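Suppose you are handed a protein chain with no further information: no name, no annotation, nothing but its sequence. What can you learn? This example shows the usual starting point.
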Amino acid sequence: MSSLLKKIKSYFQITVSFLADHPFIRCFVLAFITLFLSETMSRHSFIEPWAFLFRSPLAFLFNYLIILLTFSVALFFKRESFAITITASFWLGMSLVNGIILFFRLTPFSAIDFSIAINMLGIIDIYLNIFQLILIILGIIALILLLILIWKKTSKTKVFFVRSGIFTISILICLILTGVVGKYTGLLDKKFPNLAQAYKDYGFAYCFSLSVFDVGIDQPAQYCDNVIDKILDEIDHDINIPPENTPNVLIVQLESFFDINRVSNLITSTNPQPTLTYLKENYPHGVITVPSIGGGTANVEFEILTGMNLEHFGPGEYPYKTVLKSQTCETPAFTLKEYGYTSHAIHNHTATFYDRFAVYPALGFDTFTPLEMMCNPEYNMLGWAKDEILTQEILSCLKSTEGRDFVFTVSVQPHGKFPTENVVTEYGIQTSLKNVDDEDINAQYSYYVDQLHGTDKFIANLIKELSELDEPTAVLFYGDHFPTIYIEDENLLEGTKYQTDYVIWANYDIEQENKNLNAYQLTSHFFDTLGSNLGTTTKVHQYLSSSLNYQDKLEMIEYDMLYGDKNVFKDKIPYEKTEMAYGSEDVYVTDIVLTDDNITIYGNKFNEWTKVRIDGKLHDILYISDRCIRVENINTEEAEQLQIVLITSERLEMRTSAEYTISSFTETY
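A reasonable first move is to predict its three-dimensional structure. Written in structure tokens, the prediction is:
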């Protein structure tokens, strides 16, 4: 045994010595090892990387050349070993992150995740416990210390720029040629209908690199003014607005929501979604194909609001984080505004999540009511706001104007991460899975079904309130994506995990037409049900969906609107960012009482995020109710001016009251 170990040690030393003397061969070997480890972490398997090699050799080669190219750059540094370590750490680190992310959601890691990482900090405690957070922090510190140690230990070597340059250029040429072959043979694709499947088909290095450099919609080959004009001629129908009863138009996006009764091996003590069942039996409904599973809420939202197909954008792209940062986009919030509608957005989570506070003005919303503008929300056991609070906020928007309203609402209650231990359910629905003995999975279902029931109760209450409303109102309900929970396609009675449910309800008679659609087609179908064809993309879907080159025409219109010459709008771009207000109700003060070193304030629309600005300085408050707050430990004798400020945790001031002179309200008691 000792003899064998000595031989292995000897061979290892010879190999290391050989690689040390041959830098180019060293790059070839290390790039292959890095690729293999990268795919192992991304696929959660030691076998799958080899299957990838033999199943898709061209894609495997392309990934190898990408990593090899980055390793070749290390040859231009005097501390070559350190540069190689940095390169390997990058690929292995990104692959490790991808592997970890795939445990929490089914959408893989892409470049855009860097820009949404800041949004995740506010909810990281839901996904990771303190011990896991400490391990991550210690791991980062250890990596930094290791890199510092390697920097100090590595000696400088002579750089052979000519040979290294020839080597790098040769790899680059091979990479380009492989890409060309892959493009024209169809073995390498740039458009991913299913991002998770693309990472499996084409490899992590390729897909991740593509997400860095391929953003937006590429200019279509046939793009020009005449082509746009021809498409506009095809959809040149008389403009229809909602019928004479001009209903309020509501769209409600439900978090992780689908008909749980579609899961054939799930047993429940009672139907968790009686309202959804009733609606599907009596109103227009169907399933929609969405672009993601377990995440990507903002992208489903984007497709619903704009009618644009995310397959035409860069892989893994979030338009909320890219193009909509700089320009507007046609949505019902804009098109209905032309006919007297006021547009509202509501979300029972924070204003800054997915940068909605910055994006919604570009989508045409006049008001936005995030969680920080809501009074007395209740929370579930994971800390997500319950959906029941959305009813009063929707009614508040409808009552805030004399005319008709467009209200877009995003719920959050059934959001993961789902607990893997048994918890006390709120509604007492018992669940079990046939032929599944895993206690963690059964615990997740118990919690998830319970929260689905809470959302179903919200739908029932909202419909009840709208039924009594003295205004015609139509509502589109739909789920944004499947949850990150164990569900096999073969256990679904209908559709796949990429298909959620939708239903259309109105407090007046509407025709029932059940259709299965893509998410980007749903709003045009909703408007068709209401007798309306407002909006260019709406017309494309309504009049061209059965025509030849439908997707090409849609992509042409999308490119022209967002990146091209905007010929769709002819002489003038009709949409400008709105001066969006937060909340649909005013914040005001009715009385101020001074006692010792406290200031008690009475008024309207106070909540736990309220601050009080006294003589220019913000003060925390003691929250008593939505009509009463108190500022403690303040010098009341010197306080003169007072203003109520509703502020996010990121210090974004959303809404402020008028300034009040304290002495004009009360004397000190």
